[in-house]
Design brief:
Elements (H helix, E strand, L loop, with lengths): L2 E6 L5 H9 L4 E6 L2 H10 L4 E8 L3 E2 L1 H9 L5 E8 L3 E4 L12 E4 L1 H6 L1 H7 L4 E4 L3 H11 L3 E5 L1 H6 L3 E4 L9 E7 L13 E11 L7 H10 L5 E8 L7 E7 L7 H11 L3 E12 L2 H5 L1
Parallel strand pairs: 1-2, 1-3, 5-15, 7-8, 7-9
Antiparallel strand pairs: 3-4, 3-11, 5-11, 6-9, 6-10, 12-14, 12-15, 13-14
């Protein structure tokens, strides 16, 4: 079976790198201009799977992905992949000036934020222009030329014939992004020869109201059962100030004993609990991306 896999495009994005590292064979990749468009394609059946970024080690969660999955199109997460992120400053091959002469920098908001100190210290007077992806930023610089630059990866430079003016410009060396694979059915996906790094379950907990000790009670339902939480994050319900839900990552597979007990305890407190997915975790190396 050939799977249609949607990703945040165009070519040359880190999301495309995640797709290539995860699948490589028996897929037809389809690029979409925005994260919501990629998620919508899975919901409508235009694609079988969708791959979207959900968290970066430097800038934290990709809120657009989280909020769209929660409020608009609730698709289950069926796999996760962590990809090393290396940001470069890309220019048109006709550019012969110095870095200080760059007038405008194009890239995705997350990519620009990951390189904030580099920009501040080296090109402080350049205007920042946000694009829907690093691939689109490279496209723009390729088409316009001049004293413009894009922030993106080596794949984007090769794809659009750009020159890497400066390498590794992200502010912190341990730069990684987590991507999730979405599917309408909670079925396993055909991952390409990657060793599973464990299993994770992501749940959403909504409090009945904000009161003293509420979060402590929620966490206690997991702690006394010795269920390890790798992440907890609050997000607004968008129904008014002070109304939040919590996204919680539990480092284990969903089961009918521990999870059922924790869910029953939380529901007894008046909380709403839903499972966003229980799925395998993978780590994609630079070697696997280039293969």
């Amino acid at each position: 079976m050939v799977y249609r896999v949607g990703y945040l495009g165009p070519k040359g994005t880190f999301t495309e790198m995640a797709v290539n590292g995860l699948f490589q064979d028996n897929i037809q990749s389809v690029s979409y201009k925005t994260i919501p468009a990629c998620i919508d394609a899975v919901e409508s059946g235009d694609t079988d799977l969708g791959v979207v970024p959900i968290e970066n080690a430097i800038e934290g969660s990709v809120h657009l992905t989280l909020d769209y999955l929660i409020h608009q199109v609730p698709l289950p997460i069926v796999a996760e992949a962590t990809v090393p992120i290396t940001q470069h400053l890309l220019v048109h091959p006709s550019f012969r000036g110095e870095m200080k002469e760059i007038e405008k920098i194009y890239s995705h908001t997350q990519a620009i934020a990951q390189c904030h100190q580099f920009i501040h210290q080296n090109i402080p007077y350049a205007d920042l222009e946000y694009t829907t992806s690093t691939g689109e930023a490279a496209q723009v610089v390729h088409s316009k030329g001049g004293n413009l630059a894009a922030i993106g990866n080596e794949r984007a430079a090769n794809e659009y014939g750009l020159t890497i003016l400066n390498s590794d410009i992200h502010d912190y060396p341990n730069n990684h992004t987590r991507f999730v694979v979405l599917r309408k059915k909670e079925d396993p996906v055909p991952i390409h020869e990657l060793k599973k790094q464990g299993v994770k379950t992501t749940i959403m907990v909504t409090l009945p109201r904000d009161y003293a000790g509420a979060l402590h009670q929620v966490l206690s339902a997991f702690s006394w059962r010795k269920m390890n939480l790798s992440k907890i994050e609050s997000r607004p319900m968008k129904t008014g100030l002070g109304n939040y839900f919590f996204i919680i990552d539990v480092d284990q597979e969903y089961d009918d004993v521990l999870f059922s007990g924790a869910k029953a305890e939380l529901q007894a407190l008046g909380c709403e609990v839903s499972v966003l997915g229980t799925y395998p975790k993978y780590m994609i190396t630079t070697r696997e991306i280039k293969s």
